[in-house]
């Protein structure tokens, strides 16, 4: 009997070892596939095939932000919602039709995501200079970067012009502003980063995956950590990406429960929001995600969290006695630390399961697959 037990134990150990090896092999294969896809992306992908692509995208983003500054935050969010659902493949841009159900009607997106028309307009401009060369997924990735850089620049530019015109002759102001030293303009914006390019567009989209993979504003820290971890993003990446809430606005329906029912919220802050967000009605009323500097891309989002002034539940859980507290404090203390972590996180997010090579297609119109 003892011999039989020993034999059974040995067989069990061997079986467990085989299963563990298979599991590890599967993980290695998945990581290798993701790395291979990312390795095919390149910052110089369009240098020869469409050398004016980036300039064309930037001009389109600038025009959109000049019309509505909030659009900068919307484009960053659109890129996030694209990458988190089956990878950065432009699937979020596909509009529903009579025979096609995409991601735009999913609960996290419905009557919430914005900017698809801006990407459509930019795509039209890019198509005019390079026919069926630049993917919608890449346009969205570049537009998100350009939005971060431009949003602070646009606001600060206007403010600085007003100050200069009060104290200096118009001619001198003009020379300062439109002269050759463009470095001054660059230094006014948010952080920049090199966008890797070469993504291709999906031919499908999944409403179900959008509802499963996008974090709702009710998520706690554990839910958020797990969801981001599933996308190979660290807690630092998660906290840094959440810092995009330093710009943009949210609808009342997403923060109503927090301002009426939660206790880890600044009382004055909550009271100030209730006037525009009643307990019933006013679902689409807007409030800035960062009340301190709503139109500037900076690190004040994190100082807001430390004062219990996070607008969304999923914002405040980042600083609520949990494992993200130290990262929040680090970013609140140092804008440079936040900027570095944010740009790294955006690159990491942009590398989530891109379609490359012969996968997918280059759409002619971002809102529909090629016929």
Compute the gyration radius: what is it?
A: 23 Å
Our measurement of the CA-to-CA distance between the termini, rounded to an integer number of angstroms, reads 70 Å
Helix content: 40-55%
Number of helical stretches of at least 4 residues? 16
CATH fold type: Peroxidase, domain 2
The CATH class is identified as: Mainly Alpha
Q: Main β-sheet, in a few words?
A: 2 strands, antiparallel
Q: Structural class, from helix and strand content?
A: mainly alpha
Q: Can you identify the CATH superfamily?
A: Peroxidase, domain 2
Order of strands in the sheet with the most strands?
1-2
Instruction: Using the alpha-carbon principal axes, give the shape.
Output: globular
Q: How much of the polypeptide forms β-strand, as a percent range? A: under 5%
- CATH architectural type: Orthogonal Bundle
Runs in which pLDDT lies below 50 for 5 or more consecutive residues are 1-35, 154-188
Number of domains: 1
- How many DSSP-defined strands? 2
Q: Give the SSE string.
A: HHHHHHHHHHEHHEHHHH
The pLDDT mean sits at 85
């Amino acid at each position: 009997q003892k011999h039989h037990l020993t034999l059974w134990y040995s067989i069990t150990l061997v079986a467990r070892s085989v299963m563990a090896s298979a599991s590890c092999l599967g993980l290695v294969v998945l990581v290798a596939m993701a790395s291979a896809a990312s390795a095919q992306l390149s910052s110089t992908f369009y240098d020869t095939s469409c050398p004016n692509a980036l300039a064309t995208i930037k001009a389109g983003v600038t025009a959109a932000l000049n019309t509505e500054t909030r659009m900068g935050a919307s484009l960053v969010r659109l890129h996030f919602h694209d990458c988190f659902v089956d990878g950065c493949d432009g699937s979020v841009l596909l509009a529903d039709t009579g025979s096609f159900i995409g991601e735009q009607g999913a609960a996290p997106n419905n009557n919430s995501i914005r900017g698809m028309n801006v990407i459509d307009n930019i795509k039209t401009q890019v198509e005019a200079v390079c026919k069926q060369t630049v993917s919608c997924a890449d346009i969205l990735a570049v537009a998100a970067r350009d939005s971060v850089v431009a949003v602070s620049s646009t606001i600060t530019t206007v403010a600085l012009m007003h100050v200069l015109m009060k104290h200096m002759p118009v001619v001198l102001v003009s020379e300062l502003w439109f002269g050759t030293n463009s470095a001054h303009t660059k230094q006014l914006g948010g952080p920049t980063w090199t966008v890797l390019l070469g993504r291709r567009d999906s031919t499908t989209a999944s409403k179900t995956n959008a509802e499963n993979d996008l974090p709702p504003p009710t998520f706690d820290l554990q839910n958020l950590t797990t969801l981001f971890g599933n996308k190979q993003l660290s807690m630092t990446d998660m906290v840094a990406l959440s810092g995009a809430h330093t710009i943009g606005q949210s609808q009342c329906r997403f923060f109503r429960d927090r301002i009426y029912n939660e206790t880890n919220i600044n009382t004055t802050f909550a009271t100030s929001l209730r006037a525009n967000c009643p307990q019933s009605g006013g679902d689409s009323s807007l409030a800035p995600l960062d009340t301190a500097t709503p139109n500037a891309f900076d690190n004040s989002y994190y100082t807001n969290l430390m004062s219990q002034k996070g607008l969304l539940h999923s914002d405040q859980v980042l600083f609520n006695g949990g494992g993200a507290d130290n990262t929040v404090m680090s970013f609140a203390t140092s804008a440079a630390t936040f900027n570095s972590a944010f740009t790294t996180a955006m690159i990491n997010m942009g590398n989530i399961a891109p379609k490359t090579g012969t996968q997918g297609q280059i759409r002619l119109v971002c809102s529909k697959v090629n016929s």
